Amino acid sequence: MNRRTDEYGGPLENRFRFLKEICTSIRLAVGEDYVVGLRLSADDMDHFGLEADEASDAMTALEKNGTLTYLHIVLGSGASKGGAIHIVPPMAFEAGYLFPFAEQVRRKTTLPLIVTGRFNTPHLADQAIGKGVADAVGMTRAMICDPQLAKKVEKGCIDDVRACIACDQACIGHLHKGVPVSCIQYPESGRELTLGKYPALERRKTVLVAGGGPAGMKAASVAAVRGHRVTLCEAAGVLGGQINIAARLPNRTEFGGLVTNLARELELANVEVRLRTAVDAAFVEELRPDALILAVGSRPEDVDVAQFGGMQVATAEDVILKRKKIGTKVVVADALSDWVAFGVCLELAAGGHEVTLATTGLYAGELIPAYVRDDALGKLFRAGVKIQNFARLFGADGDTVYFEHVTALEPIIFEGVDTLVVCTGNHANRALESALGGTGTEMYIIGDCLMPRSAEEAVLDGLKVGRLV
User: Fold this and answer.
1) Residue 330 has pLDDT above 90, yes or no
2) pTM
């Protein structure tokens, strides 16, 4: 951004002059015994920004200048979309990817060095310090996700640490929306005064949780921590519900860490977990719990094949789980503007398909946290995916798919299409609620079977009901 032509612009020495003068002035003002540190990007990660060699050379010069006590490096820059992503890098970036940049700085300076950026476990931080590339590691999201992280490490309870999955949804995602920062895995963060302390029990109950997705898992662990005797039943052979499908999307594998972390909470809370156990009215009658929590999730919306006049139609789950053979030229109809369509498009493009994403949103990924969205949009561009916004699915016939522009109310037509993939979301599974309506059991409904939303709302539902039951 520096376009100056005087002594503060042009060559690196001139561009570095302003920072050097600031550090010198601060040192003169506070004296030699005062700790003065500088946090600086090791690379702006943008073709028009500060590069790694320039940054490390500047740090070397600052050490020679004798004004600093330590250095603190990060990646990225708020001055550009591509650089800003690295301020709070999403899970598409490998944990600890700052290592090579830290190693480069370490070769250029002997000042004590703090590194921050996508360190989400004590193991990774210990590795950085053990290799000598850092003297300390900054962990921001990691401690929003688990405020007890440092105490758990101190006590040697490493396996109990709730690892950040870098979804960016409730931390920086909330900040960008102007609402308080929290965590989808630990919604107590940011709500300490209202939800941080669990209420004491008036009476110990036997609690049955039907459904082992994120809502049910959180409800079960919180209720058990409070002292209830809790049994969680899951019809499938694994816990996690739709998280297991979401984690199969490209660049979303780490989302499965949500299940790992919640499963550990169930274990620590001594919740009895029964897999391959479907809950029905007879089961409830047999177990006779004092309280029943329904967290049985949702199901994909039914596709009316007749609406599409012979066009091959697939759902997002069909693509993710590879249940159908998809044609060469594909249109993805996205009614949600969330993660699902992005993942489906990337999956199909990687498989050699020609993909067009048609979304009802103002822009693709409208509901996704900004850094996740921006990174994914870059990947879609590189994969050759074409994008049409403001497009509402109308119908199809033969090899033609029809959309309507949601504000112009004019047709948008795609011809020569082999497969239409519809991402229309889910509907709540209320069958068990209906079957149990007359039992008189104390009953709570949470997660997607209350209303299909994201994992963030599901876990928050579980926390609230776990405190209430």
Assistant:
1) yes
2) 0.93
